[in-house]
Design a protein that fits this description.
By secondary structure, the protein is an alpha/beta fold. It has helices at 3-19, 24-40, 45-59, 62-65, 70-86, 114-127, 143-156, 169-182, 200-213, 228-240, 258-267, 288-296; strands at residues 102-107, 133-137, 159-160, 187-191, 217-223, 245-249, 271-275, 283-285. It has an eight-stranded mixed β-sheet, sandwiched between helices. The model has no long low-confidence stretch (mean pLDDT 87). The protein binds guanosine-5'-diphosphate (GDP). The site of guanosine-5'-diphosphate has 18 residues, from helix 6.
C-alpha cells in the first residue's frame, strides 16, 4: 500500500533534508512534487489540491523556514496533515451495537468482498468482543452467495439464518430480526445483494431493507484497489442509503492506497476496517497512524 507515494516523498524529502534551510520557493517546489506523488497514488485532484494548500500554509511559516532541520519539519507537517484527513470521529473500528439485537447492514457492489467481510466482522465480534452474532444473506439472486455465507459461518462458528427459498430481501431481513430477538443474539448482520454496477433496483431494495430494520451501522464494503471508483461508489451509496462507515478491502494488494485519503476527504465517512487478505482473520481496524507512516516511508 502507498509504495509509489512513499518512494516519491522519500526522494523529495531526502533532497530537502540535505539542504538545511528552506526558502519559500523550496517549500513550493517540494510540495509540487508531493502533489504529483499524491496524484500518482490515486488521490483525487481536488483532495490533493486542498491537502497541499493546508500543508503549504503551515510549511511556509517562519518557524519552518528558519529552522535548522526544515526538511524534517515539512515531513512532520505532511504527516500530521495526513493523520488529520485520515482520522474520523470516534474510536477507529468502534461499532454502535448496543441495544441488542443490533442490526448491521452490509452494502456494496458485487465482488467487493461483502460476504467475506461480513463473516470476518462476525468472527471479530464473536471472538474479540464476545458477542452472539447471527448472519443472514439477502442475496436472493445468487443462491451460491447464500451458500457461501453459510459455509463461512460454519467455519468460524457463527450462526446463519436458515435459507428459505422464495422470500424477498425485506422478508428475510424481518425473519433475521425475529430470530435474533427470540434467540438472544447481540448482533444480526445482513449481507445484501450486490450488483456489478449501481442500479436503481439495487438501491431501492437496500432502502427497503434499511427502512424495515433501521440498522445501527450501515457499512459499505468496497475494493480499495479500485481507487476513485471506490470513492464514487461510496458517495452514491451515502447519498441514497446513508452509510455509517467504510471497509476497504484488498489493502493487502499492491494498490495505490490514495483511495483511503480521498475516501475520507470526499465522503467524510470513517474508514472503520481494512481487509488484508482472503482468510477470516485478515480484517484489521483502520489505523491512520500506520497508514500515514507507510505513506511517508
Ligand atoms: P462479494 O461479491 O462482495 O460478496 O465478494 P466476496 O466476499 O465473495 O469476495 C470476492 C473475492 O474477494 C473472494 O475471492 C474473496 O476471498 C476476496 N477478498 C475479499 N476480501 C479480500 C481482501 O481483503 N483481500 C484479498 N486479497 N481478497 C479479498
Amino acid at each position: 500500500m502507498f509504495e509509489n507515494l512513499s518512494e516519491r516523498l522519500g526522494g523529495v524529502f531526502d533532497r530537502l533534508t540535505k539542504q538545511g534551510a528552506l526558502s519559500e520557493d523550496d517549500v513550493k517546489t517540494a510540495l509540487r512534487e508531493v502533489r504529483v506523488a499524491l496524484l500518482e497514488a490515486d488521490v483525487s485532484l481536488p483532495v490533493a489540491r486542498s491537502f497541499i494548500k493546508a500543508v503549504e500554509k503551515k510549511a511556509t511559516g517562519a518557524a519552518v523556514t528558519k529552522s535548522v532541520t526544515p526538511g524534517q519539519q515539512v515531513v512532520k507537517i505532511v504527516h500530521d496533515e495526513l493523520i488529520q484527513v485520515l482520522t474520523g470521529e470516534g474510536e477507529p473500528g468502534a461499532l454502535k451495537i448496543d441495544n441488542a439485537p443490533a442490526p448491521i447492514l452490509m452494502v456494496g457492489l458485487q465482488g467487493g468482498g461483502k460476504t467475506t467481510t461480513t463473516a470476518k466482522l462476525a468472527r471479530r465480534l464473536k471472538d474479540r468482543d464476545g458477542k452472539r452474532v447471527l448472519m443472514a444473506s439477502l442475496d436472493i439472486y445468487r443462491p451460491a452467495a447464500m451458500e457461501q455465507l453459510k459455509i463461512l459461518g460454519e467455519q468460524i462458528g457463527v450462526d446463519t439464518l436458515p435459507i428459505v427459498a422464495g422470500q424477498s430481501p425485506v422478508e428475510i431481513a424481518k425473519r433475521a430480526k425475529q430470530q435474533a430477538t427470540l434467540g438472544g443474539y447481540d448482533v444480526y448482520m445482513l449481507d445484501t445483494a450486490g450488483r456489478l454496477q449501481i442500479d436503481q433496483v439495487l438501491m431501492q431494495e437496500v432502502e427497503d431493507v434499511r427502512d424495515a430494520v433501521k440498522p445501527r451501522e450501515t457499512l459499505l464494503v468496497v475494493d480499495g484497489l479500485t481507487g476513485q471508483v471506490a470513492v464514487e461508489v461510496a458517495q452514491e451509496f451515502d447519498d441514497k442509503i446513508g452509510i455509517s462507515g467504510v471497509v476497504l478491502t484488498r489493502m493487502d494488494g499492491d494498490g495505490r492506497g490514495g483511495a483511503a485519503l480521498s475516501m475520507r476527504a470526499i465522503t467524510g465517512k470513517p474508514i472503520k476496517f481494512v481487509g488484508l487478505g482472503e482468510k477470516m482473520d485478515a480484517l484489521e481496524t483502520f489505523e491512520p497512524e500506520r497508514i500515514a507512516g507507510r505513506i511517508l516511508g
